[in-house]
Write a structure and sequence with these properties.
403 residues; alpha/beta; Aspartate Aminotransferase, domain 1; Aspartate Aminotransferase, domain 2; 2 domains; seven-stranded mixed β-sheet; three-stranded mixed β-sheet; 14 helices; 13 strands; globular; binds pyridoxal-5'-phosphate
Length: 403
């Protein structure tokens, strides 16, 4: 871009996005997250949030947040290494370590910051990073920023990954395999057993970002990386986020003492940023306690997921191989995804159209998400509307055929 000439380049880029139905607008909600949200004065059933346990609007967590402010104030004043670190952060880190069955956990301001911060700290020039083609943008950015040699492997394709690891078998440098636990836009799980076996055989580390699994999957909601089955030698680096199932904000990395101390010393996204407010840590401690004490939230959610999938099958809708709360309906073309999203809104549903670059070209979709706050009748109403709108997808419109 040339400077000193105004923003005409940017304006033509925006025009191009509009022409291709890729222009995105932010909707302003007029109240808290929940089963129903108010947009432009109209109540809509919310089928697109990641508030999987229905906790983002929970009054007990809000009360804890207020108590946290009374105790700790609002801002933390500085980074963790200067004077922003408090007993509330320590308590939450200890609780998250226990929750994930790992020696230690370290808080980050967001999942995005944690992913970039971890990969960039662990790797540098001469090292190797291997990423699933559908990994979250923050994992990809971390790999690129680290300046390690970056390789994709095909989505959930461990044979493809194996070939790539074999090709650098004799390199003495660090190798890191990175994958979403549950893929954020498809809802399918990574092949964790195969990844663990392969990484051990090929002397690579594994990093799993369980942003969508933590709180949702597993007996106690500990996530896809079940502590009863996978230790820190199996999955050395585990990332979880707090803004989805736990209904607050922030993220954490859990692993061995040496990993965590290394991140404290070396992760730029940990060092050069203001610590999360302590009150937020207090609120998150409350959500963690609720997530553990109320397994019925996970049970309700599982029943809603089954209800949606069964109903969709009866309608002839083609769904992704997902047993998670993420149930995308791929329609292919961005204009069609947008039109369907608008038609659903006219019928009282809030479901965003997910388009490139968030998903590969040709796989635009309605990313339906279910939460424990939904009622079975909400799911039935949604299915009824999908039927009326004749939302059917052809078999070739899967992400696997994407770029
Ligand atoms: C949402 C998400 C993130 C980012 O987490 P934030 O806390 O929202 O920054 C990271 N990874 C995955 C897989 C996600 O879905």
């Amino acid at each position: 871009m040339r400077h000193g000439q105004g923003f005409s380049d940017l304006e033509s880029h925006l025009d191009d996005l509009r022409r291709r139905h890729m222009y995105r607008v932010r909707r302003s909600l007029e109240g808290p997250q929940g089963r129903e949200v108010v947009v432009d004065g109209r109540p809509l059933l919310n089928f697109c949030s990641n508030d999987y346990l229905g906790l983002a609007g929970d009054s007990r967590i809000a009360e804890a947040f207020k108590r946290g402010i009374d105790r700790w104030g609002t801002g933390s004043g500085a980074s963790h290494l200067i004077c922003g670190h408090t007993g509330a952060h320590v308590e939450l880190e200890d609780a998250l370590a226990e929750f994930t069955g790992r020696p230690r956990a370290l808080l980050f301001g967001s999942g995005y910051a944690a992913n970039v911060g971890v990969i960039n700290a662990l790797l540098s020039i001469g090292d190797f990073v291997f990423e699933d083609r559908l990994n979250h943008a923050s994992l990809l950015d971390g790999g690129w920023i680290s300046r390690a040699t970056f390789s994709w492997f095909e989505h959930r394709d461990t044979a493809d990954l194996e070939g790539k690891l074999a090709a650098i078998e004799h390199e003495p440098t660090r190798k890191l395999v990175v994958s979403d636990g549950t893929f954020s836009m498809d809802g399918d799980p990574c092949r964790l057993d195969e990844l663990v076996e392969l990484a051990q055989r090929r002397a690579a580390w594994i990093m799993i970002d369980d942003a969508h699994g933590i709180g949702v999957h597993g007996v106690n909601g500990a996530g896809l990386v079940d502590p009863a089955r996978y230790g820190t030698t199996d999955v050395p680096v585990l990332v979880g986020t707090l803004g989805k199932a736990f209904g607050t904000a922030g993220a954490f990395v859990a692993g061995e003492e040496a990993l965590i101390e290394f991140l404290v010393q070396r992760s730029r996204n940990y060092i050069f940023t203001t610590a999360m407010p302590s009150a937020l840590a207090v609120a998150t401690l409350e959500s963690l306690a609720i997530a553990k004490a109320e397994p019925e939230r996970r049970e309700r959610l599982a029943a809603l997921i089954a209800r949606f999938r069964n109903g969709s099958r009866e309608l002839g809708l083609k769904l992704m191989p997902s047993t998670s709360p993420i149930q995308p309906v791929v329609v292919g073309d961005p204009a069609r995804a947008l039109a369907l999203s608008r038609a659903l809104e006219a019928r009282g549903f809030l479901i965003g159209a997910i388009r490139p670059p968030t998903v590969p070209e040709g796989t635009s979709r309605l990313r339906v998400t279910l939460t424990a706050a939904h009622r079975p009748s909400d799911v039935d109403r949604l299915l009824e509307s999908l039927k009326e709108l004749a939302v059917c997808t052809s078999p070739d419109q899967t992400t696997r055929s994407g770029n």
